[in-house]
Amino acid sequence: DAMVIQNPRYQVTQFGKPVTLSCSQTLNHNVMYWYQQKSSQAPKLLFHYYDKDFNNEADTPDNFQSRRPNTSFCFLDIRSPGLGDAAMYLCATSRDPGDRGGNQPQHFGDGTRLSIL
Amino acid sequence: QKEVEQDPGPLSVPEGAIVSLNCTYSNSAFQYFMWYRQYSRKGPELLMYTYSSGNKEDGRFTAQVDKSSKYISLFIRDSQPSDSATYLCAMSVQGAQKLVFGQGTRLTINP
Predict the structure, then answer these.
(1) Cβ–Cβ of A103/B95 closer than 8 Å?
(2) What DSSP element (H or E) covers A65?
(3) Which residue of A87, B76, B83, B109 could cross-link B19, Cys pair, CB 3.0 to 4.6 Å?
(4) Which of B45, B92, B101 has the CB atom closest to A103's CB atom?
């Protein structure tokens, strides 16, 4: 089945130690998203890629970076994690709305739960 | 005021009941409306996707959009224990892929 796969499912890191989360997709979608979701809260968009074009949300901290080396893979880098960055990080993908004349639904992976010691 | 309001619950109903989940919103530019189901420790799973006003049915699930009232609903018929999850509404503006989510309603179906 075509899917969005996130690795690892659980990640523990130390305060201030850089960490990288990964996402891969077999849907061949050209838009990829990273969300942060804290307990009992709605997912919050951090940034997204239209192909190679990076789109950052205005309120995303500089501590969060992303890389997309090819269509299938996208990485979330947290340069110096703080205690407030403990959360579930969700990757999602969608088709380009321009290809089909309207917004396209987003499909999510199962997330990486990040803990900070 | 949040752009999308959703009662967080928790909501607990007996098996077989009809469940009604709702969201209200303030931005009249929203055109695309979605419902996602999220099980514990899993990612959101797309249940329903609708454009503009009207109803959409898929099995036991019915989504309704009333743009004049800025109100959307998800109905679950013949609810099952496996429907126990958090339900998130989400919406977006035409041409903008950014989703604005409600807080999510935690639903429990009791056998």
Answers:
(1) yes
(2) strand A64-67
(3) B76
(4) B92
CB-based contact B88 A43, cutoff 8 Å: yes
B-chain residue closest to A105, CA distance: B49
C-alpha–C-alpha distance, residues B89 and B104, integer Å: 7
Evaluate the CA torsion angle B50, B51, B53, B54 in order and state its sign: negative
Quick check: A114 and A49 in contact, CB under 8 A?
A: no
Rounded-to-integer distance, Cα B7 and Cα A101, Å: 33
What residues have CB less than 8 Å from A101, skipping those under 6 apart?
none
What is the spatial distance between Cα A42 and Cα B80, in angstroms, rounded to a whole number?
Answer: 24
Q: Kindly report the nearest CA distance between residue A83 and chain B, in angstroms.
A: 20
Is the Cβ of B31 closer than 8 Å to some Cβ of chain A? yes
pLDDT tens-digit readout, B43-75: 999 999 998 888 999 999 999 999 999 999 999
Q: How confident is the model at residue B96 (pLDDT cuts 50, 70, 90)?
A: confident
Instruction: Provide the pLDDT confidence category of residue B94 given band limits of 50, 70 and 90.
Output: confident
Shortest Cα distance from B103 to chain A (angstroms)? Answer: 5
Instruction: Show residues of chain A in contact with B99, CB under 8 Å.
Output: 43, 45, 106
